[in-house]
Specification:
This protein is α/β, with parallel strands linked by helices. It has helices at about 15-20, 40-50, 75-80, 110-135, 145-160, 175-180, 205-215, 225-235, 240-250, 255-265, 290-295, 300-305, 315-320, 320-325, and strands at about 1-5, 30-35, 55, 60-65, 85-90, 190-195, 220-225, 270-275, 280-285, 305-310, 330-335, 345-350. The longest helix is centred in the middle third of the chain and has 30 residues, at about 110-135. The two termini are about 30 Å apart.
Length: about 350
């Protein structure tokens, strides 16, 4: 599962990418990087067990080249977007006369709309071209009944897009998914919009609320971050960091909330394994059952799954130790049909 970061020049995406992954962008080409998921639950488990090794969950990012204001020049960029699972669009919302904006003035609303319209136009153009091809090939390479089904589906998708909505919320049957599953529809991908705000706007959710409402039909998820301030926070030790955040009136760094939002948007959750040797967060798809979760550790666990001993994170923290969880009767035994919930702590029993 991969998240692609994109935006116009001089909006702060390179700073954010480096903060997330520790990788400094250089050449104007796609650049991969791994970002730790900043999960406070994981941190508390580490504090509790003091393990020899810690392994947080991670997100696979790719930093993409700058967008151009001329749509026809973004063709290669959009081909890269076809290969990611979630799009992270960075929009500038801070004022700074020393940092130019390609359009001459700062308007995150305009920039987001332009980006959204380019994605939607690209999907509409693909639909038109596909409809033309169906007409040419029906009866020769495509059976008439098959052509009718695809034509009807594409026309409904076209109407949906022209109504100002994105295909990420367009409901498909299993058969329809098979028909268009391989097509490069960009508006089928979830979009996270990062508003890079100035220090004075930190904690002010007014712009996020306004733009979230305006883009509700597109199902965009928005978050406000000050890349400059986050960069300053990253250089502080834990004590200084806490004091700095308190002065700003916020509980956690926005970059931490961004990783969790991206993780959630990818449709992922974490479960934990704990002990003195290692505390580790494992990444699985939301809705996975216990044997499939075990496969994240090793395929033998899924193959020989017997059961899993499960603790709830909040109960472990409240009671203070595994022993007290057992004494309180809170350690549960889960079978193969158990759907793993985010934050559960598992110990798998298996035999192969």
């Amino acid at each position: 599962m991969k998240l692609g970061m994109v935006g116009l020049p001089q909006v702060g995406k390179k700073t954010l990418f480096e903060l997330l992954t520790g990788v400094s962008p250089g050449m104007d080409r796609p650049l991969p990087g791994l970002a730790d998921v900043r999960d406070q639950r994981f941190d508390k488990l580490v504090d509790m067990y003091i393990p020899k090794k810690i392994t947080p969950a991670q997100i696979d990012f790719v930093m993409l080249p700058d967008m151009d204001t001329q749509a026809e020049r973004n063709r290669e960029l959009f081909q890269h977007l076809e290969r990611v699972d979630v799009i992270c669009y960075v929009a500038r919302a801070f004022e700074d006369d020393t940092v130019f904006h390609v359009d001459g003035d700062v308007s995150s609303e305009r920039d987001i709309n332009t980006f959204a319209e380019e994605l939607e136009l690209g999907d509409l153009i693909f639909i038109e071209k596909r409809l033309e091809r169906i007409e040419k090939e029906v009866g020769r390479k495509i059976e008439p009944a098959v052509a009718d089904k695809e034509r009807d589906l594409l026309m409904r998708m076209k109407d949906y897009l022209e109504d100002g909505r994105t295909l990420v919320s367009f409901t498909l049957t299993e058969e329809e998914e098979r028909i268009i599953g391989s097509y490069p529809f960009l508006t089928r991908k979830p979009v996270v919009v990062v508003l890079n705000v100035g220090e004075g706007e930190i904690g002010d959710e007014g712009l996020v609320a306004q733009l979230s409402e305006e883009h509700a039909s597109r199902s965009y998820r928005l978050i406000a971050i000050s890349a400059q301030v986050e960069q300053e926070i990253s250089q502080l030790d834990d004590e200084e960091r806490s004091a700095f955040l308190e002065d700003l009136g916020i509980e956690s760094a926005a970059i931490d909330r961004l990783t969790l939002l991206c993780y959630e948007t990818l449709g992922l959750i974490s479960f934990f394994t704990v002990g003195e040797d290692e505390v580790r967060a494992w990444t699985i798809r939301n809705g996975s059952k216990a044997p499939q979760a075990g496969r994240a550790i090793h395929q033998d666990i899924e193959r020989g799954f017997i059961r899993s001993e499960v603790m709830r994170y909040d109960e472990l923290i409240e009671l203070g130790s595994e022993q007290k969880v057992k004494e309180a009767g809170k350690l549960t035994q889960k079978g193969k049909d158990h759907v793993v919930e985010d934050g559960e702590i598992h110990h798998f029993l298996f035999k192969v």
